[in-house]
Design a protein that fits this description.
The protein is α+β, with helices and mostly antiparallel strands. 57% of the residues lie in helices and 14% in strands. The protein contains 19 helices and 14 strands. It has a five-stranded mixed sheet with strand order 9-11-12-14-13. Helix 15 packs parallel to helix 19. The longest helix is centred in the C-terminal third of the chain and has 57 residues. It is elongated and about 160 Å long. The protein starts with a helix and ends in an 11-residue tail after the last strand.
Length: 694
């Protein structure tokens, strides 16, 4: 059995099994219906050809006679001419005679055909003839008498039209009230007898004769085809069901198809039941009637429709078996899959509007095309049978599926374009669900992603080269600057000839120190941004480092009339960081407050802890209006004062941000009016047991 299951999972064997199953069961069903009809009509008894011909001829003659009877009765009851009844049936092999109860011929197309007719059918019916219109005119002495007479007319004859005419004289008592009416009365029921005759040598009966001969001649072959195709179809179905659910994914799970994952189990079963009921309603005698109309033993359209129905039912059965073996049969029920996911009616309305706005153009084109094709089909219907409508409906279903696929493929491609436009270069358009030009377009978008990513990498490389250039130039400038600083120090030790020369020397000393600080900041900023600094991560107590920083800058801040307020964390806030780099971050932020804070205000340093993080905050009030965003303020060479009167390079915040990020922390600025706040967040170290065991 395992070999059989493994064999059934091979693509070629499975494809062959599908073809044999669908074709075999379709032939079995269609040929079986033909065999059943032949058996009912005596096709497997003696004189099979005559039995089949008598059955089909009697059915055809009965239909023709009923048509003639209905046309004649309708014409007599509405007062129309009966001459058109002769053209009700356009078959040269059919004639009829209509007689009344006394045997009088009322209408006939029968001439000398009695001797040629092989079949006849008699139908008894009746009609209600309409008599001539009559007029009623009477004069009454009172209105009551006239009303009573009118009521009598209306009770006797249903169709009454009337008018009033009054002559009233004052005082003489000779008043008259006139009633003028017309009515149409129905006569008594007239029984009639309609007899139809058919000749096998002409008309439709002649074609039936040839078809009945073919059916009776091939009756045994039809029975054999039914048996053989049924056995092959059932064996192929058993092979498909046996192999369903034995193909595995790489992770070992049973491989499920699109139908298994997307269509709920109860919806699938309901669809199979509806399809089977519709097929049963269309099957049976309908197949045989179509065979007679086209004159073939095996009709093409019913065979195709049966094959489609069998394929859908088999696909559903295989899906159910696969779900059962994967143990997802119950989990795929609708109420389980969508439990708690049923949207609000308002959301459904919004979704409908969204869907309509997306698909209205394609939907209108599709509906318009359907209308045009239906008009053409209706005009062509005069020469075709009713199965053409079913074929048209099937084509429309396929066309609708194709249109929906095109729209979904375009949405998939558009989603990829939106992701690329948003900067998500890692997004891949899923081309496994796309075919043809859609797949090619999706692959082009993926290749475009690679091109954009290459361009971004080139841009980043260019930025790194610029940073390295700044570093190298800074080093080159630093060498002569060191000499300048050294000679300025030597000159300061020598006596100056005048006080003005001493002042010039002080300016040179101050500007040389400023230039040296700028070059050091440039080198540090370039190293921090490129990540070339070596970070020595060690457990660090933030409270201790903040206290040291506050002690270092307390006197400097007091000299600027600034009050430093330190609020440490209640418990030891341990983080993993480089103490020297973190000190540099604190120094830059306190130096920034020293330069730009408003005198007479307070500078706040605080530390707070959570279970996962340590949050450090620096806050002060700016002396100049902060008419700049926080993002712009952290850019390089940007300073808070637009006039740039204060000292500083504009690199302090950028260096602090880069150094914080190198230590796996986050750096954020907040500006609220003149309030400046810098927030540093670091992951908190997990508590470890004391070595002494306390």
């Amino acid at each position: 059995m395992k070999r059989l299951s493994a064999l059934s999972e091979k693509p070629k064997v499975r494809a062959l099994a599908w073809v044999v199953c669908v074709v075999g069961l379709a032939f079995c069903v269609v040929c079986g219906q033909q065999v059943k009809w032949l058996s009912d009509q005596g096709g497997y008894q003696a004189n099979a050809e005559e039995n089949v011909l008598n059955a089909t001829a009697g059915e055809l003659l009965r239909d023709y006679t009923n048509i003639v009877a209905e046309e004649y009765v309708t014409a007599r009851e509405v007062g129309r001419s009966t001459s058109d009844v002769r053209d009700a049936v356009e078959d040269e092999g059919f004639v009829f005679t209509i007689t009344d109860e006394q045997g009088t011929t009322l209408l006939t197309t029968y001439d000398d055909a009695m001797g040629k007719a092989q079949y006849d059918y008699t139908l008894h019916t009746q009609f209600f003839p309409i008599e001539e219109e009559e007029t009623f005119y009477r004069t009454y002495n009172t209105i009551e008498e006239r009303e009573e007479a009118l009521q009598t007319l209306m009770d006797t004859y249903g169709d009454v039209s009337y008018t009033y005419e009054d002559h009233v004289y004052e005082g003489d008592g000779n008043d008259s009230y006139i009633l003028s009416a017309t009515y149409r009365s129905d006569g008594e029921t007239v029984p009639i007898t309609v007899t139809g005759y058919a000749m096998a040598t002409s008309g439709a009966l002649s074609s039936l004769h040839s078809w009945a001969f073919s059916m009776s001649y091939r009756a045994d072959a039809l029975a054999l085809i039914t048996l053989v195709s049924g056995v092959l179809g059932v064996l192929a179905l058993a092979l498909l069901l046996r192999g369903a659910g034995y193909r595995r994914e790489e992770n070992g799970d049973i491989a499920l198809s699109w139908m298994d994952r997307r269509v709920p189990t109860d919806i699938l079963v309901l669809g199979m039941v509806v399809l089977f009921v519709l097929w049963m309603a269309m099957g049976g005698t309908a197949v045989t009637m179509h065979s007679r109309s086209v004159g073939s033993v095996l009709p093409l359209y019913p065979l195709i429709l049966t094959g489609v129905a069998v394929a859908l039912l088999v696909a559903g059965a295989v899906s159910l078996v696969r779900r059962h073996r994967a143990r997802v049969l119950r989990e795929n029920l609708t109420f389980r899959r969508y439990r708690g996911k049923i949207p609000h009616p308002r959301d459904l309305w919004h979704r409908f509007l969204h869907f309509f706005l997306q698909f209205w153009a394609a939907g209108l084109c599709f509906v318009g095309l359907c209308i045009l094709e239906f008009i053409c089909l209706y005009m062509y219907q005069a020469t075709m049978d009713g199965s053409a409508v079913l074929v048209w409906g099937g084509l429309k279903v396929l066309e609708g599926i194709l249109v929906i696929y095109v729209i979904l493929a375009m949405k998939e491609i558009r989603a990829g374009g939106d992701q690329l436009a948003a900067g998500n270069l890692d997004y891949q358009v899923p081309t496994n669900r796309l075919y043809g030009e859609f797949r090619k377009h999706g692959e082009n978008l993926n290749n475009l992603r690679g091109g954009i990513q290459h361009a971004v990498e080139e841009q980043m490389k260019s930025e790194r080269m610029k940073t390295e250039l700044i570093t190298n130039v800074s080093h080159d400038i630093k060498t002569p600057l060191t000499s300048i600083v050294s000679y300025v120090d030597l000159l300061k030790k020598e006596p100056m000839p005048t006080d003005q020369a001493k002042e010039y020397l002080d300016v040179l000393d101050r500007q040389a120190a400023r230039l040296k600080k700028l070059i050091e900041d440039l080198v540090e900023a370039s190293k921090a941004s490129t990540g070339s600094l070596t970070v020595n991560f060690q457990p660090t107590d933030v409270n201790v480092l903040l206290s040291q920083s506050a002690g270092e800058y307390q006197e400097k801040l007091a000299a600027r009339d600034l009050t430093l307020i330190l609020t440490p964390a209640e418990e030891a806030p341990m983080i993993s960081a480089d103490g020297q780099l973190l000190w540099r971050v604190f120094e830059n932020l306190l130096s920034n407050a020293l330069k730009y804070a408003m005198p007479g205000t307070r500078v706040y340093l605080s530390c707070e802890t959570t279970d996962q993080a340590v949050v450090i905050a620096f806050r002060n009030i700016s002396a100049s209006p902060l008419n700049i965003s926080a993002e712009e303020l952290m850019d390089r060479f940007v300073r808070g004062d637009a006039s740039r009167n204060t000292e500083g390079s504009g690199l302090g915040l950028a260096i602090a941000r880069d150094l914080t990020q190198l230590q796996r922390g986050t750096f954020a600025l907040t500006i609220d009016g003149d309030l400046f706040k810098a927030t540093l967040t670091f992951p908190r170290c997990q508590k470890t047991q004391d070595p002494a065991g306390k």
